[in-house]
Amino acid sequence: MKPLVELSFMPEKLALKEEGRPVKGGFFYRPNIVPPADYAAWRDYLQAFVRFLIHRYGAEEVRTWLFEVWNEPDLPFVFWNGSRDEYFRLYAESARAIKDVDAQIQVGGPATSGGKWISSFLRYCRENDVPVDFVTTHQYAGDPLGGVEDQGDAEGQAGGFDAWPLKDWLRVALKD
């Protein structure tokens, strides 16, 4: 068994604080659910964390782990108080920061609920030369939080999942 390192919830000192934009999520532990105020500081923070892991566990071991950027950014005011485009930027900045420490570390996302944003996430990564080693989404039986239902054909593309060009985009993204 190997860790899946989820990079989510913004440290208090790095959290963006804008008037009218709640910083804290709705759960009892009140996580910071906003993008960073300063992407250079976020990048430094992530790189220090990854270097610590490599120092503690060794590069060979850390390269076997998966690093997932955030958790369900498609659920506003629960896990993410930002737009889809803001999440894509967070993913890009995070993936590049990690890969700059060690290009062999595996980074992925978008870690959305019910297959949301996968098509647009892969398109964004391809068009902006953003590294993506794996794709994640969280499927639920039922709708435990509201708005978390099976998306079927993910982003409304005709023909359903089998006709969806995910396989083609994954081949490009994963450089098979």
SSE topology:
Blueprint: E1 4-7, H1 39-57, H2 59-62, E2 66-69, H3 84-101, E3 106-113, H4 118-127, E4 134-138, H5 160-163, H6 166-173
Parallel strand pairs: 1-2, 2-3, 3-4
Helix pairs in contact: 1-3, 4-6
Number of helices: 6
Radius of gyration: 16 Å
Q: Which percent bin holds the helix content?
A: 25-40%
Overall tally of structural domains: 1
Major β-sheet profile: 4 strands, parallel
CATH class: Alpha Beta
Number of strands: 4
Which characteristics define this entry?
176 residues; alpha/beta; TIM Barrel
Quick structural overview:
The protein is of the alpha/beta class and 176 residues long.
Give your account of this protein's structure.
The chain is α/β, with parallel strands linked by helices. It has one domain (about 5-175): TIM Barrel (Alpha-Beta Barrel). It has helices at about 40-55, 60, 85-100, 120-125, 160-165, 165-175; strands at about 5, 65-70, 105-115, 135-140. Helix 1 packs across helix 3 and helix 4 runs parallel beside helix 6 (about 165-175). The model is unreliable at about 155-175 (pLDDT under 50).
